[in-house]
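Phosphatidylserine decarboxylase
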Amino acid sequence: MILLIQILVLGVLAVALTQWLRHLPYPSPLVRPLLPSRQRWPELQIREWLETTRFHSGYLRFFYRDPPRVLPADDGIIAPADGLVTSYEARAGVRYIVIALSFWDMHVQRSPLDGRVTNVTPSGDAHMDGEGRDFAFLRDKYCPVQTRIALETDIGPVAIRLITSVAARRIETWVHAGEQIRRGQRVGRILLGSTVVLEVPDEYVCTCELGSHVRAGETILAAKASV
C-alpha cells in the first residue's frame, strides 16, 4: 500500500514537472488558477498572443468578464472605465480626463451621467492626426482609432472617447444617437489594451489623483470646482 502511494505521488510530481517545463517561462496550467491576474497572464505572453491572434481560452474568459457595479450614493460624474488616471488637461473649454486600461482591467465602459446620446462617431488615423498629436492621450498611440460617444447632459455636452491602437483596432458600442441613457449604463467595450477619455466642461475638475486606479460605474471621477 505504501509503495502504491509513493508511485502515485511520483506520478503526480512527474506530471507537474512536465507541465512546468512545457510552459516555461510562463505559468503551468496547474498553478495558473492560483495566481493573481498579472502573474496568471504575463504581459509578454499576452503580447505574443496579440501577434498571432491566438489567445488562451482562459484569458479570453477573464478579459470578457462584466461584473455588476454598484453606483455611488453621491451624485457626481462617475468613471466611464476601469484603469489608471494619467492626465486631466483642459483646453478650449473642455477638460480631458484620461484613463489608461491595462490587459488586466475590466474593459466594459459605462456612462458617467444621465443624458441623451447625440452622436456616436467612429474615426481612424486621418481624423486623429487632424485633431493634433499634441493631445497627451494620442501622443504615444500607434495608429490610433476611436469611437466618440457624445452626450447632452444636465451639465452640458459630455463625451466618452474609446481609443485603441493597431494592436486591437476593435471597438464595440452598445448605444445609438437619440437614445436616453442612464448613469452607469454600459455603453461599449474596447478589445485589449486601450484608453478611455472623458470630456467634460472645464469648470469640472478631476477628483482623483494622477496614477490612481478607478472603477467604471463606481468611482466619482469629476466634480464642479469650488469657487
